[in-house]
Amino acid sequence: GKDWVVAPLPGRENSAGRGNKGQGQRKGVSLLFEGGQTPMTIKYPKFGRPAGRTRKEKPTALNLGRIQEWIDSGRLNPEEEINMRHLYVSGCIHNLRKGGVKLLGSDATKLKGKINIVVSRASQTAIKHIESLGGSVKCEYHTPLSLRALVKPHTFERKGRLIPGRPMPVRRKDVLFLFQDTSRMSGRR
Q: Strands 116-119, 121-122: parallel, antiparallel or unpaired by DSSP?
């Protein structure tokens, strides 16, 4: 028998229509590849945040056991009303996030004496334990600016600016939390 050799189509002899040499002849490149120059997706990245998501202001957590440790070591005075500035200056909390300070009931049994404390938020267990010892918990609403003014008023004075006052809450969640029990509300009503 005679072997038949199928001849390639004209113009497709040696490279199957992919040209001569290089990456285009071989596997190829992705659609977003721009030949080695910085791609558009890196030059101009997406910006903003997805719609529907809000930045949650997470408060700094503070346990009752830690407060008792600071009282025992003499860094906090239980006779005075303890506010977020006292907690920050004494080193009981290291940073004040945008949400302020939330008092938690962990290690509640370690707290021995009565304290009067002013924070942004407080858990129900912490409130019950402090009030059972004869103390009081007051909750204040703060924006990031008013928190900074509370903790570091010298920065405003140094720049010759007025120290901003505490604003009223705007979000429904904050309003309901602060006004559900007016005995725990501090300052303006």
A: unpaired
Q: Can you tell me the distance from the alpha carbon of 163 to that of 145, in angstroms, rounded to the nearest whole number?
A: 10
Task: Look at residues 141, 96, 97 and name the one whose alpha carbon lies nearest to residue 121.
Answer: 141
Separation CA 139–CA 179 (nearest Å): 10
Q: Which amino acid is at 173?
A: K
Q: Does the pLDDT of residue 169 top 90, yes or no?
A: no
What would you measure as the largest C-alpha separation in the chain, in angstroms?
Answer: 112
Q: Which residues does 19 contact at the CB level (< 8 Å), separation at least 6?
A: 25
**What is the four-CA torsion angle of 66, 72, 76, 77, rounded to 10 degrees?**
130
Taking the alpha carbons at both ends of the chain, their separation in whole angstroms is 106
Report, as an integer, the average pLDDT of 140-144.
Answer: 89
CA nearest neighbour of 96 among 77, 81, 83, 106:
83
Interval 89-119: pLDDT, tens: 999 998 887 889 999 998 888 999 999 999 9
- Mean pLDDT (the chain) is 84
CB-count burial class (<10 Å; 0-12, 13-18, 19+) for 174: middle
Stated pTM of the model: 0.67
DSSP structure string for 62-84: EEHHHHHHHHHTTSS-TTSEE-H
